[in-house]
Amino acid sequence: MHITFFSVWMTVLWSSILILIFYVLRKKYKLIDICSISGVIVLYLFCMIRMAVPVEFPWTKIIFGGALFNRIYYFSCVERKIGNYISVFDLLYLVWCSGTVLILLHYVIQYVKIARCFGEMPVQRNSKAAQIADAIWNGSKRPDILQTAAVKTPCCFGILRKKIIIPDKLYTEEQLRFILLHECSHLKNNDILVKNLINILCALYWWNPCVYLLKKDLSQSLEIRCDLTAVKELNHQLKGEYLAVVLNEYKDHLKAGNSAGLHYDNPRLLLERFQLVAEERRILVKKGKIPAWIISGFLLFFSYSFIFQTEYEAPKEDIETEQGAYEVNRGNSYLIKTDDGTYFLHIQNKDIHISEELAQMMLEDDFTVIEKSEK
Length: 375
Prior knowledge:
Layout: H1 5-27, H2 30-52, E1 61-64, H3 66-79, E2 81-82, E3 86-87, H4 88-120, E4 124-125, H5 127-137, E5 144-148, E6 155-157, E7 163-167, H6 173-188, H7 191-204, H8 209-231, H9 236-256, H10 267-279, H11 285-304, E8 306-309, H12 316-319, E9 333-338, E10 343-347, E11 350-354, H13 356-364, E12 369-372
Parallel strand pairs: 1-8, 5-7, 9-12
Antiparallel strand pairs: 2-3, 4-5, 6-7, 9-10, 10-11
């Protein structure tokens, strides 16, 4: 298992194609019907795994990419040099790595600033919200519930030390319950971790527009899953009240003009959430995940099963460097195996004794083998 130019190329190709396919299918609601929203998230997580593991396995089959693929590879990696040593690929790789480092630094700095901001902001404990959260969480180490005027819309934060931050304004008990149902769902599903991982992938593949499409649609899918989880036990009237709370928080988000909270500047994304809640398209977790795991498992194996590489023949002068030196191939030589398991290479009308390890390598390359008795 190793990383090569070609394995990275296949990773970018496969991930981009699958992201586009899943995005189109989800927007048409076809994929939600088959896999549920939880299944859609599994498929997107598969795309993230495929991007994060750009390797070539020993069982990966090599497919030669053809003349155009060869020309692109040779132009970028072999033929074109900047100065005497740096190829076009080397320059692009340097730009790629530099962009990744800068973006990762930006993410880290932003994350530290937000963590510090939440740590230093004046907060107060909301006992009513804490009681509601206790009933919802049903697990150990419930997240801290903090109320502060420093945020305008509810949000959650933290991977290990989880927090739910709500604005310092009056909420009814029912409104608090809706808000905490949504935010607790984010924390239980480790959505904060997923969003940080997709930010890292966006830094690694910052030049590929498909990763930003993945980030946008995965974030939308996570919000839809939280909505459907929050309303699954509610009647139609309470669903309407839940959506009214979401709409009010969205309006406050627009008025505040900040980036905390719902992260929705496009009203079409909010409308999609409302439509899915109203239509109750929610074969939620277990049954919906089964087709998604089957599809993603098959695609994962298939995407690693072959790889496109260049094909070329070495110049004759590079092979025959000395008199008496010659190329060994399936056309001018074959193997001889004796009764005691010894191997000989027959070439140029001579039988040359070779090691068993070398013989096995040649057998894997489909050299002809003839069994010869010593009697």
